[in-house]
DNA sequence: AATATACCCGACTATTTAGTCGGGGTCAAG
DNA sequence: CTTGACCCCGACTAAATAGTCGGGTATATT
């Protein structure tokens, strides 16, 4: 049962979410005050108190920038609770303590949206082995519109999706996609080539590595 | 190329990471000072300055709790950059602006570790339909050891992994797993049953919903 | 011997940030 | 027409937090 929430309270919650997602840490009352376009920080405090009473957020008294969004808050927003969620686990007294054991069973899954613009997918093929991205690795892809030469990108060429290195030069052929494996060929830009996003990070053997 | 980092600097970085992951927001200098067991906050400032020079973290001057870990920092830690990463994108001037278009191509992927104890997997079967978890949905599972009655859990029964509701009562049969679909049967606890983790959230139609 | 680097100390100040007080206006429900 | 919920105002105080200053020690390098 999702608790009722007023328009204004939802506005505040959405502003809070946006701030955290875009900066990596929560805002001050003052910053929220500006975004809500009110002139007193007391107004913000009042609204926050209501969200807290409804268990959508949690504050730590007299600590700067310590507002966190609780699971219920993410539910109202319809957003994944991944980022700050781990910190915001609402306390629950365990009735029972049970040992867990064994290895994780690998189940099948498809590409998944993790945040607004971030996707997780699995690499198939060996066209990027020289960049340390191998068949079966998982990569984190961020959907974006601007790219720099050298970015590893997820590209759609016709109907096919692929991961290549994007190169932009000031002489012909100007723009092309370079596989990091000599056995594959360069793909030049035509109207069939669209860049979907940038590969941010690779998961291999349980370790994440950044893509420069 | 991972920049060289001293033991002490790595200690600081690890403390920073732990704090952010467990609270949802960055620590103050004072809190880091305590964790590093030094008596002057200047010591912390010095170390932070070095991490910042090496582009492992980023600070915002004169803002409380505004330290974020940069991609390079996550690489040194070997941790996924999911949570605070989106906020900590290091600036990069775009050489080229290219429109992206089209829908996301669905590629195949397997279960993936997102954080230390958080996994993403896809549900197969209809045993939880009454709990709003359907075949093909993706769920976020947190590996943990303590559960409360009513939790939706990922359980391993013999060789098989399944998602059920965990029930603990003070009268026989005490402990059992209850499918949220009357067409399946209750599973009583034996030594073959181990609980792997708790289902935190479900992804359905691009929207995340919390599991109570 | 001189220089640099990494790490640290303690007292202090400046600024940011949370919190308090005592109100007001509107709107819908009883 | 009173009550309560919701949202808001402005001036203020208290506390948390970042930042500054002027040092020190040890270790390795030139």
Automatic annotation (TrEMBL), chains A, B:
Organism phylogeny: Bacteria, Candidatus Daviesiibacteriota
Domain LexA repressor DNA-binding: residue ranges: 4-65
Protein name: LexA repressor
Source organism of this protein record: Candidatus Daviesbacteria bacterium GW2011_GWA2_40_9
Residue ranges annotated for the Peptidase S24/S26A/S26B/S26C domain, each copy included: 84-200
GO function term, MF aspect, one: DNA binding
PANTHER family assigned to the protein according to its UniProt record, in alphabetical order: LEXA REPRESSOR, LEXA REPRESSOR-RELATED
A single BP term in Gene Ontology: negative regulation of DNA-templated transcription
Entry similarity comment: Belongs to the peptidase S24 family.
Key words of the record: Autocatalytic cleavage, DNA damage, DNA repair, DNA replication, DNA-binding, Hydrolase, Repressor, SOS response, Transcription, Transcription regulation
């Amino acid at each position: 049962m999702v608790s009722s929430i007023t328009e204004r309270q939802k506005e505040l919650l959405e502003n809070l979410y946006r701030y955290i997602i875009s900066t990596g840490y929560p805002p001050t009352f003052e910053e929220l005050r500006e975004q809500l376009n009110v002139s007193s920080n007391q107004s913000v405090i009042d609204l926050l108190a209501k969200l807290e009473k409804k268990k959508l957020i949690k504050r730590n008294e007299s600590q700067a920038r310590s507002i966190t969004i609780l699971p219920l808050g993410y539910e109202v927003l319809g957003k994944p609770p991944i980022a700050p969620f781990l910190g915001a686990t609402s306390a629950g007294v365990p009735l029972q303590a049970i040992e867990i054991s064994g290895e994780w069973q690998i189940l099948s899954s498809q590409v998944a949206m993790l945040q607004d613009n971030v996707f997780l997918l699995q690499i198939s093929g060996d066209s990027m082995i020289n960049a340390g991205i191998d068949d079966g690795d998982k990569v984190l892809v961020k959907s974006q519109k601007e790219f720099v030469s050298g970015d590893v990108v997820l590209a759609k060429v016709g109907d096919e999706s692929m991961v290549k290195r994007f190169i932009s030069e000031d002489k012909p052929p100007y723009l092309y996609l370079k596989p990091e494996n000599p056995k594959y060929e360069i793909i030049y830009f035509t109207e069939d080539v669209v860049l979907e996003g940038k590969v941010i990070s690779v998961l291999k053997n349980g370790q994440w590595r950044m893509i420069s």
